[in-house]
């Protein structure tokens, strides 16, 4: 046994040495628990697909850290004065990984495919046609002005897919979804289901000198504990979408590992409490506001979230140019909370209890979910509200409860996805109250002024005016409190010391890793 | 031959019953795969949801879905995985070898070590080793398998970084076939030890009890009286009979071993059927889950058939005079 151990150890060390000397010098090994259904981001949203899809496919635009568009496949672009035409001037040297040149035909095909198949219907709904006067010009025609189009042209939302490969048959079943061909910085090599997928450098990438890496391997883990341990040991080089506060703290304190707590603001994951506004007593805004004043957010941010989460005060992610902080802040005030409940006619009974309610949470999230609701259970007792925590065994169970309105209050984590038209509107517009659909307006919130403002902001091309409309929307929604905003989700990224070009932009790791490089 | 055909018919019937029961049980779980897909997409339109439900036949009544499914199974069509967007059979065949490797290695380790420990402690039932085996088996048997796995991981992967934390082979790739085998073996050690730990306990207790029983039997006394050496008595005479309960148990345990594999594969990120089953449950991927359950049922049935054969080999009375010998199932009950 002893001998075997020595032998196994020796063999393993030998292997590691051999492997590192024989393989590419710029190889990045990423660990992730996200399992992509496939790699075609034109028909599938979510970060599991977006991360590889943005490496394999290029898109018209990229974005800077300050939310400004940067040329990518589009060298330049202009919007007509009436806002009904957006013209893209494409680069002429982009080719797909199979050698076929990328033309405006592919851009037109991709846009129409996304419009018809992508789950985010509002993203490209106003697009009527895409004209292709020549190979490097694509003219997008709109039914009405659609400022959200700009962020929708980001890598995470608008991969340009080759028409000659995806153009035939039912795209949902196209075999190239699992064997993708794009024009992005990395070529797809293989996907071993449940183990890993591998990408390699696209030597003919249309931007010279990029990417820096020779290959990317993403190893898929079934369990976060295991994944964090692998990072700690140095088995993997990078760990994106790290959410657990204890995991972040642990890796932050590990020698040889750095943690970036920034990145992914455009995805804008906000952790919040949502009310079933059709169910008494939560149909009364005073009750909802009272709970807002009763939550000590400082305690939540500092203690429960360990200081790793940013405050969230409204429906739009804080760094967005359209966000405002000029809204009700719900400063912690138990007396005010009690007074509001008194006003709502919810007087305490003999035991000091005003009413009993249930709180659900998305299973899996420790700090953002379980710990938060446990805190609320003891905290809300102070204003005479008895909380019963309802645990769901898995995600579908929770989703079923919430989407069939079988809940009082639930913790929820919802993404902005760039422009408010894509990810914010759905939670508040009354036309999106759709039973059975999770992440629709499951609060059943309906406010005519909110509907009006969101409709107007969706077509307003002047950014300043648009921000004004969204400002009023944010003020109303925060004051009405169908939702209490708690924090932005900390999406941290752990990486090996000495690595460079870490993807910490507004789309985080769901953007092309052009500058990522390994230590020499 | 006739009895073999009878057996085969009952096996086929059993498999059908298993499939139908599984299918109906799954319907009780709240939520369906389309809700999960839509959830991970971050929301979707009504049309897309309706289209997905229609694509996967989820809009039909349950009984119709079951009929369609059974009809397909007969032709060897296990359907299309809703979540992983590929044929279920491809998915399962990709994962099956990893699970079979893990099961075979765990069972071998458990049976060999368990039996040896059992024999030794049976020979000196009051000795130090016997007590040690008793305590060790009790601990191994009571500890939840995922806990054992996590502890081994912390000890032998984190504190003493001797073994890899995850996977079946280094994802960065290895050079030649010999290195590949060594790499897999290196990855295999901790999962095997974890999964075997419960069964070592079980088999050592079983072997100990049965050997104690057998060693006190008349024919052993006769053997000793004939002047046979202690070694001949133990291994030549006692062990044969002493092993029967172990073999019986082995066959019966196959189902549980698969259940244990779900946990071990999840803890060690082993790319086998168990982890796929776990992920399919979370994603309500019915076709995949049903496919896995079907294959698991097949594995268990085959294991039981093999047990019967092995049983007959160890104890020739069973093969030749079937009626008089107790069936293995009965013996275990």
UniProtKB/TrEMBL annotation, chain A:
Keyword rRNA processing: no
Any one GO BP annotation for this protein: peptide transport
Pfam short name (any one): SBP_bac_5
Main localization category: periplasm
Signal among keywords: yes
InterPro entries: Peptide/Ni-bd, SBP_5, SBP_5_dom
Superkingdom of source: Bacteria
Domain Solute-binding protein family: 69-421
Signal peptide start-end: 1-24
GO terms assigned for molecular function: peptide transmembrane transporter activity
Subcellular location: Periplasm
Keywords, comma-separated and alphabetical: Signal
A cellular-component GO term for this protein: outer membrane-bounded periplasmic space
Protein family per UniProt: Belongs to the bacterial solute-binding protein 5 family.
Protein name, per record: Peptide/nickel transport system substrate-binding protein
Taxonomic source organism: Pseudooceanicola nitratireducens
UniProtKB/TrEMBL annotation, chain B:
Protein location: Cell membrane
Stretches that traverse the bilayer: 98-120, 132-160, 180-202, 243-268, 288-314
PROSITE patterns xrefs: ABC_TM1 (PS50928)
Membrane disposition: Multi-pass membrane protein
Pfam families in the cross-refs: BPD_transp_1, BPD_transp_1_N
A GO cellular component entry from the record: plasma membrane
ABC transmembrane type-1 domain residues: 96-311
Keyword tags: Cell membrane, Membrane, Transmembrane, Transmembrane helix, Transport
Domain of life: Bacteria
Record carries keyword Thylakoid: no
Primary location recorded for the protein, binned into one broad class: membrane
Alphabetized Gene3D superfamilies for the sequence: MetI-like
Keyword Acetylation: no
Entry's family note: Belongs to the binding-protein-dependent transport system permease family.
UniProt-recorded name of the protein: Peptide/nickel transport system permease protein
């Amino acid at each position: 046994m002893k001998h075997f151990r020595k032998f196994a150890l020796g063999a393993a060390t030998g292997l590691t040495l051999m492997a590192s000397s024989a393989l590419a010098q710029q190889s990045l090994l990423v660990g992730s628990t996200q399992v992509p259904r496939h790699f075609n981001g034109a028909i599938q949203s979510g970060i599991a697909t977006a991360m590889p899809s943005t490496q394999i496919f290029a898109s018209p635009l990229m974005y800077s850290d300050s939310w400004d568009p940067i040329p990518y496949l589009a060298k330049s672009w202009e919007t007509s004065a009436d806002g009904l035409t957006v013209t893209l001037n494409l680069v002429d040297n982009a080719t797909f990984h199979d050698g076929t040149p990328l033309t405006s035909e592919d851009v037109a095909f991709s846009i129409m495919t996304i419009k018809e198949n992508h789950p985010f219907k509002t993203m490209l709904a106003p697009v009527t046609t895409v004209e292709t006067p020549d190979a490097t010009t694509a003219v997008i025609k709109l039914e009405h002005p659609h400022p959200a189009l700009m962020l929708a042209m980001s890598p995470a939302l608008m991969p340009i897919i080759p028409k000659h490969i995806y153009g035939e048959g039912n795209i949902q079943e196209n075999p190239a979804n699992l064997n993708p061909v794009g024009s992005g910085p990395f070529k797809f090599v293989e996907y071993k289901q449940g183990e890993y997928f591998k990408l390699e450098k696209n030597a003919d990438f249309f931007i010279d000198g990029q990417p820096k890496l020779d290959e990317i391997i993403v190893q898929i883990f079934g369990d976060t504990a295991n994944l964090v341990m692998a990072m700690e040991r140095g088995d993997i080089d990078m760990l994106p979408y790290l959410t657990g506060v204890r995991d972040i703290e642990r890796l932050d304190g590990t020698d040889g590992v750095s943690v970036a707590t920034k990145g992914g603001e455009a995805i804008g994951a906000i952790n919040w409490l949502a009310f079933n506004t059709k169910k008494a007593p939560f149909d009364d805004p005073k009750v909802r506001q009272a709970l807002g004043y009763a939550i000590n957010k400082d305690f939540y941010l500092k203690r429960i979230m360990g200081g790793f989460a940013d405050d969230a005060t409204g429906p739009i992610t804080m760094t967005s140019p359209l966000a405002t902080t000029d809204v009700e802040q719900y400063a912690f005030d138990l007396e005010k909370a009690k007074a509001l409940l008194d006003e709502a006619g919810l007087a305490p009974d003999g035991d000091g209890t005003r009413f009993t309610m249930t709180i659900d949470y998305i299973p899996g999230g420790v700090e953002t979910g379980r710990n938060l609701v446990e805190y609320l259970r003891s905290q809300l007792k102070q204003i005479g509200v008895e909380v019963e925590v309802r645990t769901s065994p898995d995600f579908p169970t929770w989703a079923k409860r919430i989407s069939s309105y079988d809940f009082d209050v639930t913790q929820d984590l919802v993404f902005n996805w760039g422009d408010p038209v894509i990810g914010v509107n759905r939670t508040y517009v009354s036309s999106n109250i759709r039973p059975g659909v999770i992440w629709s307006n499951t609060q059943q919130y309906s406010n005519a002024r909110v509907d009006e403002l969101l409709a107007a902001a969706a077509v307003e091309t002047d950014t300043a005016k648009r921000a004004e409309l969204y400002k009023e929307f944010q003020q109303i929604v925060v004051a009405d409190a169908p939702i209490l905003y708690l924090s932005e989700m900390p999406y941290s990224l752990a990486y090996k010391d000495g690595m460079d070009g870490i993807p910490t932009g507004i789309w985080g790791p769901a953007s092309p890793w052009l500058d990522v490089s390994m230590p020499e | 031959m006739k009895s073999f055909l009878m057996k085969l018919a009952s096996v086929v019937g059993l498999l059908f019953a298993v499939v139908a029961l599984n299918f109906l049980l799954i319907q009780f779980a709240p939520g369906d795969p389309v809700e999960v897909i839509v959830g991970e997409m971050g929301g979707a339109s009504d049309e897309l949801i309706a289209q997905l439900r229609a694509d996967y036949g989820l809009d039909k009544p349950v009984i119709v879905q079951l009929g369609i499914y059974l009809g397909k199974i007969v032709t060897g069509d296990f359907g299309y995985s809703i979540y992983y967007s590929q044929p279920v059979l491809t998915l399962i065949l990709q994962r099956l070898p990893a699970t079979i490797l893990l099961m075979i290695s765990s069972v071998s380790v458990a049976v060999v070590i368990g039996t040896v420990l059992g024999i030794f402690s049976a020979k000196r039932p009051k000795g130090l080793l016997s007590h040690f085996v008793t305590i060790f088996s009790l601990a191994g048997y009571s500890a939840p398998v995922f806990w054992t796995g996590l502890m081994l991981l912390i000890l032998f992967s984190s504190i003493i970084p001797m073994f890899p934390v995850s996977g079946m082979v280094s994802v960065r790739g290895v050079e030649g076939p010999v290195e590949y085998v060594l790499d897999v073996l290196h990855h295999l050690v901790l999962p095997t030890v974890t999964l075997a730990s419960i069964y070592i306990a079980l088999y050592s207790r079983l072997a100990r009890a049965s050997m104690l029983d057998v060693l006190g039997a008349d024919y052993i006394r006769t053997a000793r009286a004939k002047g046979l050496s202690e070694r001949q008595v133990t291994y030549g005479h006692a062990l044969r009979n002493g092993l029967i309960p172990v073999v019986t148990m082995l066959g019966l345990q196959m189902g549980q071993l698969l259940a244990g594999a779900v946990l071990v594969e999840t803890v060690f990120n082993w790319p086998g059927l168990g982890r796929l089953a776990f992920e399919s449950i979370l994603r309500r991927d019915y076709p995949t889950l049903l496919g896995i359950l079907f294959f698991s049922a097949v594995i268990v049935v085959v294991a039981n058939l093999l047990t019967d054969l092995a049983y007959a080999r160890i104890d020739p009375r069973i093969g030749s005079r079937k009626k008089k010998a107790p069936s293995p199932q009965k013996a275990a009950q």
